[in-house]
Amino acid sequence: MTRTPIRIGLIGAGYIASWHADALRAAPEATVSAVCDPNLDLAEGLANGHGARAFASVEEMISAGVCDGVHILTPPDLHHPLALQCLKAGLHVLVEKPVALNAAQTQEIEAAAQAANRRFHAGHNFLGLPSYERLKRDMRRGRLGRVSGAEIRWCYPFAPLRSGPYGIWPLRETRNLLLELGPHLLSLAHDLFGTVEIQHLELSKPVALPGAGTRPQGWRILARAGSVDLTLTLSLVETVDDRSVTVRGSSARARLDLAADTLVIDAENTADLVANPLWRQVSLSGQHLAQGVVNAARQLTSLNRKSPYALSFSGLARGVWGPLARGEAADPRWSGASAVAVMATLDDVLARCDWPLATVPAATRKPAPKAMVIGGTGFIGRALTRELVARGTDVRVVSRGRRGPFADLPDAVETVSLSLNDTEGLTRAMEGIDTVYNLARSTDSSWEECLKNDVAVAEGIGRAAQAAGVRRLVYTGTIASFDMSDPKGRITDDTPLPDEMEERNLYARSKAECEHRLLALHRQHRLPLVIARPGIVVGAGGPLQHWGIGRWHGAGAVRLWGNGRNPLPFVLIGDCVDGLIRCAEAEGIEGRSFNLVGPALMSGRDYFDAIHDAVGARLKVSSGNLHLMYAADAVKHQLKSRVLRRSGLTRPSRADWLSRAHLTPFDNSRAIAELGWHPCADRGEFIRVAITEAGLFGF
Questions:
Q1: Which residues of 537-554 are buried (b: 16+ CB within 10 A; e: fewer)?
Q2: Which run of H or E residues covers position 44?
Q3: Is the peptide bond before 323 cis (omega within 30 degrees of 0)?
Q4: Cβ pair 130, 137 in contact under 8 A
Q5: Quick one: pLDDT at residue 647?
Q6: Strands 262-267 and 252-257
Q7: In 3D, which of 689, 166, 696 has the Cα closest to residue 408?
């Protein structure tokens, strides 16, 4: 008999929601029926792709009666009240990790579920990996022998610690980092070995957050579960990806790679002395090869829709909703009781955490901003805001969030939470403002989304600046909008952007369209506009894994765009910010554009050689054949458009791929002459600022 799928509402339509939605699409026992988010546009975008209804509030979604259960995917401080609200309404709940802020809140959710005769599940997705299930099966069958110890590691870079955004929930307090990532470790430990008792905690590798003190990037936890000694490691610096579980037994050692969904058993064998080590290595090699082939085939045939991360969410969805659909007891891996146990252990760890709290100065006056920075919480925006304050200008930062990384500047910086689609609100916020810097950009997957979220926003900001009577609007475009495929050409500040952009990547095309719309406002309505196009911006606060240089494969390997031997248009963050301010201050340059690109000091290969010389890190650097990359992209485009039926995709072009190598040199002589701008021209000084003192690896 065919069962009606359980109807699931997604509360929160951010990044993680798409993983949950795709997992539910693949689960026969459940279906996405609703998406709820205060940003209705965001909710509608996700809902439309799954044939679901969109809602702006939980109350509306509950009243509509379209759900049997929900996945709560909001920031963690909202998990507890939302779970209680949904359980009271008679809905089953799955809550993303951390399910709450402490064990007491988690126990309240479990009690509410019991009282309502509904199920409460924790979103510990890695318990659903196929290889994890094999590990548990091998342990139950005694294949590892008597288990005595285990190491569970989450060694994976957490880029926001070094390059932002700093206002996100995990960075607001030291404890939030463990609450965000610790459930991965402890859910595995509890499910494999039972109750975990914490014995010791060590914190290391502090990193300074702008205006918010420091945070530890290393957490080392010693624990015990029965007779099993546990070492739990959380490392968030730029490190090789090691998200793994190693279990040591009397007969074998098992290593589960969570990121690759592979399980390798290193077992004793009974071969003779000479053959014994050979057979052991042959066994390991065979296991690696077999699982590598299976995983590669799975991802190829699914067009990468069955990556290990996607499989973990699929396992979670089936494991949670499958038993309910079949009328079976809940899987203990994701039960409310297991969630309480995990959160109780996290409480124990945090009770041992004595990391110093940041001291935030009290305001002595209300800021009187004359400059507005839109996108002020990003890499360039943060540096620009601080430099403006250093030069004596108070700043109003416009952000989608309510927090900014400027708690140490309460007298000079105020953060205003505004939707960038709210032109009237932006106009009011610009009253009394002399200069507006628009550094905002959106990340979109179709041209229609770009027109709505980037182009229309930039045009709206321009109209708001004009209505508010600001003296100067500085818009940051990108040098990526140029055709940089010809090494014999030369790009100056007078070089126009290409007229035909349909076959350029969405970012380059969208930024170019923003420029065209704003220049039209300048010509027709005298918008006081100046356009600045930064080059490859490097320095403190910027990422190691800069995609303007190449395609990254973790922190230790990069495939350059091209052979990596042509000079790249680098610019130091300090020089970039100085150029932006000069674009605001120079007289008589309205309607002009300037490429903020430093002198040609080094190529991509030179840059990585300098990293090795300066900090001792030799990265794996290889050349990228851009013609082959273009061909591969063309094949992917056909698969996405014809097989997956995705619309709004941009057709790849050879010129676009060649432009990524920045083959065409820049001439910044007009920026130097008209702005009085003098970017760093000394190679040694560039290396000191961009590499030696930039904290690229987090320590």
A1: bbbbbbbbbbebbbebeb
A2: helix 40-48
A3: no
A4: no
A5: 67
A6: antiparallel
A7: 166
Cα–Cα distance, 504 to 511 (Å, whole number): 11
Distance separating alpha carbons of residues 645 and 667, to the nearest angstrom: 43
Asked if residue 652 has a cis previous peptide bond (ω within 30° of 0), the answer is no
Based on C-alpha coordinates, what's the Rg of the chain? 27
SS (H, E, C) 523-535: HHHCCCEEEEEEC
Task: Classify 491 in phi/psi space as left (phi over 0), alpha (psi -120 to 50) or beta.
Answer: beta
Amino acid at residue number 502: E
Q: Can you list the residues of the chain whose pLDDT is less than 70? A: 1-2, 401-402, 644, 647-649
Encoded amino acid at 473, one letter: L
Residues paired with residue 558 on neighbouring β-strands, in sequence order: 552, 621
Cβ-contact 98, 179 below 8 angstroms: yes
Q: Give CA–CA dist 513/245, Å, rounded.
A: 48
Residues 501, 511 contacting (CB under 8 angstroms): no
Report which secondary-structure segment, H or E, holds 610: helix 604-615
- What 3-state DSSP class applies to 197? strand
Q: How far apart are CA 134 and CA 166, in angstroms?
A: 39
In the DSSP assignment, the letter for residue 37 is -
Predicted pLDDT of residue 641: 77
Distance CA 551, CA 562 (A): 11
Contact indicator for 47, 53 with CB cutoff of 8 Å? yes
DSSP 68-92: SEEEE-S-GGGHHHHHHHHHHTT-E
For residue 221 the two structure tokens come to 């936890």
Structure tokens at 206: 């502090």
Token representation of residue 673? 């002459």
CB-CB contact of 633 with 480 (8 Å): no
Give the whole-angstrom CA distance, residue 442 versus residue 435. 22
Amino acid at 478: T
Of 432, 654, 437, nearest to 529 by C-alpha is 437
* 355-395 pLDDT tens trace: 998 888 899 999 999 999 999 989 999 999 999 999 999 99
> What pLDDT, on a 0 to 100 scale, did the predictor assign at position 1?
43
CA distances from 61 to 10, 12, 52, 92, 204 (A): 10, 12, 11, 14, 44
Q: Are 237 and 157 in contact (CB under 8 A)?
A: yes
How much is the pLDDT for 644? 67
Strand stretches in 108-241, DSSP E: 120-123, 147-155, 197-208, 214-225, 228-235
Supply the pLDDT for residue 642: 75
Q: How many residues does the chain have?
A: 699
pLDDT tens by residue, 128-143: 999 999 999 999 999 9
| CA separation for the pair 250, 227 (Å, rounded) | 13
- How far CA 640 is from CA of 23, 161, 446, 633, 644, in Å, comes to 19, 34, 12, 10, 5
**pTM attached to this predicted model:** 0.90
Distance CA 154, CA 239 (A): 10
Long-range contacts of 111-116 (CB under 8 A, 24+ apart): 112/83, 112/84, 112/87, 112/88, 113/87, 113/336, 114/336, 116/87, 116/88, 116/90
